[in-house]
Amino acid sequence: MDIQDLAVDIPAEGEHAMEGIDFITSGEQYLTFLLANEQYAVDILCVEEIRSWEVPTKIPNAPGYIKGVINMRGVIVPIVDLRLKFKIGEANYQETTVVIVLTYNVNDSSRTIGFVVDAVSDVLNVETNEIQNSPAFGGCVQPQYIDGLINVGKNVVTLLNVEQLQKVEQHAATH
What we know:
42% strand, single chain, 5-stranded mixed sheet, 7% helix, 10 strands, mainly beta, CATH 2.40.50.180
Protein backbone atom coordinates (compact mmCIF):
# COMPACT_ATOMS: atom_id res chain seq x y z
CA MET A 1 0.00 0.00 0.00
CA ASP A 2 1.43 3.39 -0.92
CA ILE A 3 0.90 6.83 0.60
CA GLN A 4 -1.63 7.86 -2.06
CA ASP A 5 -3.98 5.02 -1.04
CA LEU A 6 -3.81 6.14 2.58
CA ALA A 7 -4.44 9.80 1.66
CA VAL A 8 -7.88 8.90 0.27
CA ASP A 9 -9.10 8.18 3.82
CA ILE A 10 -8.00 11.56 5.20
CA PRO A 11 -10.99 13.91 5.45
CA ALA A 12 -10.90 17.15 3.49
CA GLU A 13 -10.84 20.44 5.38
CA GLY A 14 -14.21 21.04 7.05
CA GLU A 15 -15.23 17.37 7.05
CA HIS A 16 -15.64 15.49 10.31
CA ALA A 17 -14.03 12.06 10.25
CA MET A 18 -15.41 11.00 13.66
CA GLU A 19 -18.74 9.31 13.29
CA GLY A 20 -21.08 8.82 16.21
CA ILE A 21 -19.86 11.92 18.04
CA ASP A 22 -22.38 14.70 18.49
CA PHE A 23 -20.60 17.91 17.51
CA ILE A 24 -21.97 21.05 19.08
CA THR A 25 -22.45 23.70 16.47
CA SER A 26 -24.25 26.34 18.52
CA GLY A 27 -25.18 27.10 22.09
CA GLU A 28 -23.17 26.81 25.25
CA GLN A 29 -22.15 24.01 27.60
CA TYR A 30 -22.49 24.24 31.36
CA LEU A 31 -21.27 22.01 34.17
CA THR A 32 -24.15 21.39 36.57
CA PHE A 33 -23.72 20.71 40.27
CA LEU A 34 -25.76 20.42 43.46
CA LEU A 35 -25.95 22.71 46.47
CA ALA A 36 -28.53 21.74 49.09
CA ASN A 37 -30.47 19.64 46.54
CA GLU A 38 -30.75 22.57 44.10
CA GLN A 39 -29.06 22.53 40.69
CA TYR A 40 -26.64 25.24 39.60
CA ALA A 41 -24.37 25.52 36.57
CA VAL A 42 -21.21 27.30 35.42
CA ASP A 43 -19.76 27.81 31.95
CA ILE A 44 -17.77 24.66 31.24
CA LEU A 45 -15.07 26.63 29.43
CA CYS A 46 -14.10 28.15 32.80
CA VAL A 47 -13.71 24.77 34.52
CA GLU A 48 -10.02 24.04 35.10
CA GLU A 49 -10.59 20.76 36.94
CA ILE A 50 -12.78 18.94 39.43
CA ARG A 51 -11.00 17.77 42.59
CA SER A 52 -12.09 15.61 45.47
CA TRP A 53 -12.56 17.46 48.76
CA GLU A 54 -9.40 17.95 50.79
CA VAL A 55 -9.02 20.17 53.83
CA PRO A 56 -7.26 23.35 52.67
CA THR A 57 -4.71 25.40 54.61
CA LYS A 58 -6.58 27.96 56.73
CA ILE A 59 -6.14 31.70 56.17
CA PRO A 60 -6.31 33.88 59.31
CA ASN A 61 -9.14 36.44 59.46
CA ALA A 62 -10.73 35.20 56.21
CA PRO A 63 -14.53 35.28 55.84
CA GLY A 64 -16.21 32.06 57.01
CA TYR A 65 -17.06 30.94 53.48
CA ILE A 66 -13.37 30.97 52.47
CA LYS A 67 -12.16 27.59 53.68
CA GLY A 68 -8.49 28.30 52.95
CA VAL A 69 -6.06 27.68 50.09
CA ILE A 70 -4.59 24.69 48.27
CA ASN A 71 -1.44 24.33 46.20
CA MET A 72 -2.47 23.19 42.72
CA ARG A 73 0.66 22.47 40.69
CA GLY A 74 2.44 25.50 42.13
CA VAL A 75 -0.57 27.85 42.00
CA ILE A 76 -2.13 28.95 45.29
CA VAL A 77 -5.90 28.53 44.86
CA PRO A 78 -8.40 30.00 47.36
CA ILE A 79 -11.24 27.60 48.24
CA VAL A 80 -14.75 29.06 48.66
CA ASP A 81 -17.66 27.03 50.02
CA LEU A 82 -20.63 28.13 47.87
CA ARG A 83 -23.16 26.77 50.36
CA LEU A 84 -21.74 29.12 53.01
CA LYS A 85 -21.26 32.03 50.59
CA PHE A 86 -24.90 31.84 49.49
CA LYS A 87 -26.09 31.12 53.06
CA ILE A 88 -28.03 27.98 52.07
CA GLY A 89 -27.30 25.70 54.99
CA GLU A 90 -24.41 24.21 56.85
CA ALA A 91 -21.36 22.84 55.08
CA ASN A 92 -21.51 19.06 55.18
CA TYR A 93 -18.52 17.39 53.53
CA GLN A 94 -19.26 13.89 52.26
CA GLU A 95 -17.85 11.47 49.69
CA THR A 96 -19.62 13.32 46.87
CA THR A 97 -18.30 16.73 47.94
CA VAL A 98 -15.94 18.13 45.31
CA VAL A 99 -14.08 21.32 44.51
CA ILE A 100 -14.73 22.80 41.07
CA VAL A 101 -11.67 24.85 40.13
CA LEU A 102 -12.65 27.73 37.82
CA THR A 103 -10.34 30.03 35.91
CA TYR A 104 -11.74 33.26 34.58
CA ASN A 105 -9.74 35.28 32.05
CA VAL A 106 -10.23 39.03 31.93
CA ASN A 107 -8.02 41.29 29.82
CA ASP A 108 -4.48 39.91 30.12
CA SER A 109 -4.87 38.23 33.50
CA SER A 110 -6.67 35.24 34.90
CA ARG A 111 -7.98 34.32 38.32
CA THR A 112 -8.33 30.77 39.62
CA ILE A 113 -10.61 29.91 42.56
CA GLY A 114 -11.96 26.58 43.79
CA PHE A 115 -15.62 26.26 44.79
CA VAL A 116 -16.84 23.55 47.17
CA VAL A 117 -20.11 21.96 45.99
CA ASP A 118 -22.15 18.98 47.21
CA ALA A 119 -21.79 16.98 43.98
CA VAL A 120 -21.23 17.39 40.24
CA SER A 121 -24.25 16.40 38.16
CA ASP A 122 -23.89 16.61 34.40
CA VAL A 123 -22.86 18.66 31.38
CA LEU A 124 -25.76 20.63 29.96
CA ASN A 125 -26.04 21.81 26.34
CA VAL A 126 -28.01 25.06 26.23
CA GLU A 127 -29.13 27.26 23.36
CA THR A 128 -29.05 30.98 24.13
CA ASN A 129 -32.83 31.31 23.61
CA GLU A 130 -33.44 28.70 26.36
CA ILE A 131 -31.93 30.94 29.05
CA GLN A 132 -34.55 32.90 30.97
CA ASN A 133 -34.02 35.93 33.19
CA SER A 134 -34.11 35.29 36.91
CA PRO A 135 -37.20 36.64 38.70
CA ALA A 136 -37.03 40.09 40.32
CA PHE A 137 -37.92 38.78 43.78
CA GLY A 138 -35.09 37.76 46.07
CA GLY A 139 -33.70 34.36 46.79
CA CYS A 140 -30.78 32.83 48.62
CA VAL A 141 -28.37 33.69 45.78
CA GLN A 142 -27.81 37.40 45.24
CA PRO A 143 -28.81 38.60 41.73
CA GLN A 144 -25.29 39.64 40.65
CA TYR A 145 -24.25 35.97 40.80
CA ILE A 146 -27.05 34.78 38.48
CA ASP A 147 -26.83 34.85 34.67
CA GLY A 148 -30.21 33.18 34.13
CA LEU A 149 -32.38 30.12 34.58
CA ILE A 150 -32.85 27.04 32.42
CA ASN A 151 -35.74 24.58 32.50
CA VAL A 152 -34.42 21.01 32.41
CA GLY A 153 -37.34 18.61 32.52
CA LYS A 154 -39.20 19.35 35.75
CA ASN A 155 -36.19 21.10 37.30
CA VAL A 156 -34.84 24.62 37.07
CA VAL A 157 -31.06 25.10 36.87
CA THR A 158 -29.56 28.41 37.98
CA LEU A 159 -26.72 29.64 35.75
CA LEU A 160 -24.04 31.35 37.82
CA ASN A 161 -21.91 34.25 36.60
CA VAL A 162 -18.29 33.07 36.88
CA GLU A 163 -16.88 36.61 36.73
CA GLN A 164 -18.98 37.67 39.74
CA LEU A 165 -18.15 34.47 41.63
CA GLN A 166 -14.47 35.30 41.28
CA LYS A 167 -14.89 38.57 43.20
CA VAL A 168 -14.34 38.20 46.91
CA GLU A 169 -16.13 40.85 48.95
CA GLN A 170 -14.19 43.09 51.28
CA HIS A 171 -14.20 41.63 54.77
CA ALA A 172 -13.65 43.54 57.96
CA ALA A 173 -11.30 41.54 60.17
CA THR A 174 -12.65 40.80 63.61
CA HIS A 175 -10.34 41.35 66.56
